[in-house]
Amino acid sequence: MLPMQGDRKPVPFLQTEFGETMGQISPDGRWMAYTSNESGQQEVYVQSFPRGSGPEGKWKVSTAGGHASRWRQDGKELFYLDAGGRLMAVAVKTAAKSAFEMGAPEPLFETRNPPLLSFGYQPSADGQRFVVAESQGSTQAPFTVVSNWQRAAMGDK
Prior knowledge:
Blueprint: E1 20-25, E2 31-36, E3 43-48, E4 58-60, E5 66-71, E6 77-82, E7 86-93, E8 101-102, E9 106-110, E10 121-123, E11 130-132, H1 149-153
Antiparallel strand pairs: 1-2, 2-3, 3-4, 5-6, 6-7, 7-8, 7-9, 10-11
């Protein structure tokens, strides 16, 4: 974390013997969702942000493995990929000065070969649509990247 006031010296959000990755701050800036292997497998957790700024505690969001958590833009849902590649949704309540509250994880849909080391998906602002990257294995069709396409469309060379 980089404080915006004072000496502006970076400090870790968490510093444990486990691997914590893929942190995502909630839209209201009060919660951090992240992936940790502290249970022996990748799971999604939520803690107050910055630590010590709200209700103390840590909440395990995923129930059978999970990673790559993303918040809905209004903060009312948290999405993640489970260990089998299903996109999951968890309803959350993050009212001011209250503890983190969540519902049970609900599967939304299966993904095929989701990337393991990246988020691999992006929800729309309302959480009703998703863009999902899917791995195609070792043989992928070539693609072309067109740069400066605006100039070409205007007839400039």
